[in-house]
UniProtKB/TrEMBL annotation:
GO molecular function: carbohydrate:proton symporter activity
Keywords assigned: Membrane, Transmembrane, Transmembrane helix, Transport
Similarity remark: Belongs to the major facilitator superfamily. Sugar transporter (TC 2.A.1.1) family.
NCBIfam families in the cross-refs: SP
Organism listed in the record: Umbelopsis vinacea
Topology in the lipid bilayer: Multi-pass membrane protein
Protein name: Major facilitator superfamily (MFS) profile domain-containing protein
InterPro entries: MFS_dom, MFS_sugar_transport-like, MFS_Sugar_Transporters, MFS_trans_sf, Sugar/inositol_transpt, Sugar_transporter_CS
Length: 521
C-alpha cells in the first residue's frame, strides 16, 4: 500500500492514522493529567526563549525615547545607532558557528544553560556600561547567548512535547517575544520618571536578565530530548522520559512503543546514511527546496517592516507627528500588549487553519496596513502634521500591522521543524537563525538611515518587500497541516517516493490529523 511504501522510503513506520490509533482517549484537558501538566510547565524553560529577543527590541525603543540615555551616549544616530541596535545581532551571527556543535555534542538541555550564562555576562556589561563601546560589547554577549538558546529551544520543544501539542507550543514559544516586549515597554515607561539618573536606562538593561535566570534554573530540571538520548546510546533513559511524561507512567502504553519505534527508525536511518554533512542540503531537489524555505523564512519574517516598529518606534512616530516622550512610551506599551494578545491567540489556530492560510492572511494584512500607513502619513506630512485624523489613522495602522504580524510569526518555528527531516533539523534552525540575524543586521543599519533620508517614503520599500514575500509563499511553501512525516516528505521528494509507490498496489490509505489532547476518537 502507499502508506507502507512511504515507510520504506523514509525509514519510519509513523503516519497520522497510526498516531491517532495509539493516542490514548482523553476526555479532559491536558492540565488534568499530572505528568503532562508537569512536562508543559518544565517546557517553560524553552518556551520563554524569545522573551529576551522581544525585550531587547522594545527596550531599545524605550531607551531611544529616554532623554538620559540619549545624552549619556551623545544622541547616537545613523550608523552609530545601527551598531548599537545590531550588537545583539552580531552576537547571534557568531553563535551560529558553535550552536549546531553544542547541540549535537551536549544535547538540547545543556546548551540552554550555556547560552543563559553567556547572556547574563552580557547583561552585566550592558548595565555597567560607561561608554558606547562597552554597551555594544555587552549587547554582543547577549546576542551570542540568546542565539544558542534560540537554536536549542525549538528543537527541544519539537522533540519532547506531547505529539498533539507540538505545533501549539512552538507557536506560543514564538509569541513570547511579545511578552518580553511588553515587559520592556512597561519598565522603560516607569524608569523614565527617574529623570536624569542613569538608572533610567541601567535598570531596564539589568532586568533583561530575568528570563535567562529562569531558563538557567529550569534547565537543570527539564528532561533531555529522547531523540538525542537514543542517538547517544542512552535508549533506556529516553524510554523512561517518554513513559513518564507521554504515557503517564504506563510502560505498556501503545503510544510509548510507537514513539520509540519512530525514534529508533529515524536514528537508524541517520546513522546508516551518515547524513551529518552540511552538503546534504544540496544532495537532492527535495533538500534544496527545504533549504530555500528554511533560509527564506528567516529573511521573510524580518523583512516585512516589523523592524521599524520593533527598534525605531521613536523615529517612526516622529514621521507621523507624535513627538511627546510620554506619549511615545505609552504607545510603545500599547503596541506590545496588542502583540502579546494576538500572538497567543493566533498560536492556538495554526493547526486548525493551516500554515499557508496563516502566512497569506498575515502578509496580506501587513501589506494593507503598511500601504494605508504610507498614504495617510504622506498626506499628514504635506499638511505639516496638523491633520489629527491622519495621525490617528497612521497610529491605528501600526496596531493593525502588529496584529497581522502575529498571525504569520508564530507559524515559522513549527514550519521549519516540519519541513526539515530529523537528521537536518538542528542545522535547519542554525540556517534559519543565520537568515534572521542577517536580516536584522541589515535592518539595523539601513532603517535609521532610510527613515532620516526618506521619511514616510521609506515605507514604500517595505510595501514592495511584503508583496514579494506573498509571492514566495504562494509558489514555494507547501501546506503541512494534518500530514504525517512521510506525507510532508513526499511533497519534497516526489520522484523518490513515486518510484517506490508505483511498485506497490494502488491502495491509498486515508490519513487523518492527530487528535488534540482532550479530544475523543
Amino acid at each position: 500500500m502507499k502508506a507502507q511504501a512511504t515507510k520504506e522510503v523514509y525509514g519510519s513506520n509513523v503516519d497520522a492514522t497510526m498516531l491517532r490509533e495509539v493516542i490514548p482517549k482523553r476526555t479532559n484537558m491536558w492540565w488534568h493529567y499530572p505528568a503532562l501538566r508537569t512536562l508543559n510547565l518544565l517546557l517553560i524553560c524553552a518556551i520563554v526563549t524569545d522573551v529576551t529577543n522581544g525585550y531587547d527590541g522594545s527596550m531599545l525603543n524605550g531607551l531611544q525615547i529616554i532623554q538620559s540615555w540619549q545624552e549619556y551616549f551623545n544622541k547616537p544616530t545613523g550608523s552609530i545607532l545601527g551598531v548599537i541596535s545590531n550588537g545583539t545581532r552580531f552576537g547571534q551571527v557568531g553563535s551560529l558557528f558553535v550552536s549546531a556543535t553544542l547541540i549535537q555534542r551536549f544535547g538540547r538541555r545543556r546548551p540552554i544553560a550555556i547560552g543563559s550564562v553567556i547572556l547574563l555576562v552580557g547583561v552585566i556589561l550592558q548595565t555597567a556600561a560607561v561608554n558606547t563601546t562597552m554597551f555594544v560589547i555587552g549587547r554582543v554577549f547577549i546576542g551570542f547567548g540568546n542565539g544558542i538558546q534560540a537554536t536549542a529551544c525549538p528543537i527541544l520543544v519539537a522533540e519532547l512535547a506531547y505529539p498533539t501539542q507540538r505545533t501549539q507550543i512552538t507557536g506560543i514559544m514564538n509569541s513570547t517575544g511579545s511578552l518580553g516586549s511588553l515587559l520592556a515597554a512597561t519598565i522603560t515607561f516607569g524608569t523614565s520618571y527617574l529623570g536624569a539618573s542613569t538608572w533610567s536606562w541601567r535598570l531596564p538593561s539589568l532586568l533583561q536578565a530575568m528570563s535567562s535566570i529562569l531558563q538557567l534554573i529550569m534547565s537543570f530540571y527539564v528532561p533531555e530530548s529522547p531523540r538525542w538520548l537514543v542517538y547517544n546510546n542512552r535508549r533506556e533513559e529516553a524510554w523512561k522520559i517518554l513513559a513518564k511524561y507521554h504515557a503517564e507512567g504506563d510502560e505498556n502504553s501503545e503510544l510509548l512503543k510507537f514513539e520509540m519505534e519512530e525514534i529508533d527508525a529515524a536514528i537508524a536511518r541517520e546513522k546508516s546514511q551518515s547524513l551529518t554533512s552540511w552538503m546534504e542540503w544540496f544532495r537532492t531537489p527535495g533538500n534544496r527546496h527545504r533549504f530555500f524555505i528554511v533560509l527564506t523564512i528567516g529573511f521573510m519574517i524580518q523583512w516585512c517592516g516589523n523592524a521599524l516598529i520593533s527598534y525605531y518606534l521613536g523615529i517612526l512616530l516622529k514621521t507621523i507627528g507624535i513627538t511627546d516622550q510620554k506619549s511615545q512610551l505609552i504607545i510603545n506599551v500599547g503596541i506590545n500588549i496588542n502583540g502579546m494578545v494576538w500572538g497567543n491567540f493566533f498560536s492556538l489556530w495554526i493547526e486548525r487553519v493551516g500554515r499557508r492560510p496563516m502566512f497569506f492572511m498575515g502578509l496580506t494584512g501587513m501589506f494593507c496596513a503598511f500601504l494605508v500607513l504610507t498614504i495617510v502619513t504622506g498626506i499628514n506630512q504635506g499638511e505639516g502634521f496638523h491633520n489629527s485624523s491622519a495621525s490617528q489613522a497612521s497610529l491605528a495602522m501600526i496596531f493593525v500591522f502588529g496584529a497581522f504580524y502575529k498571525m504569520a510569526g508564530p507559524v515559522c518555528p513549527s514550519y521549519v521543524a516540519e519541513v526539515s527531516p530529523y537528521d537536518l533539523r538542528a542545522k535547519a534552525f542554525v540556517i534559519n537563525g543565520f537568515a534572521d540575524a542577517a536580516a536584522n543586521v541589515f535592518n539595523g543599519f539601513t532603517n535609521p538611515i532610510g527613515m532620516v533620508a526618506l521619511g514616510w517614503k521609506y515605507y514604500i520599500v517595505w510595501c514592495c518587500v511584503l508583496l514579494s514575500n506573498l509571492l514566495l509563499v504562494y509558489f514555494f511553501f507547501p501546506e503541512t497541516k494534518g500530514l504525517s512525516l512521510e506525507e510532508v516528505a513526499i511533497k519534497f521528494d516526489k520522484d523518490q517516493a513515486d518510484d517506490i509507490i508505483r511498485s506497490e498496489p494502488d491502495q491509498a490509505e486515508t490519513v487523518d490529523a492527530p487528535l488534540e489532547v482532550g479530544d475523543e476518537k
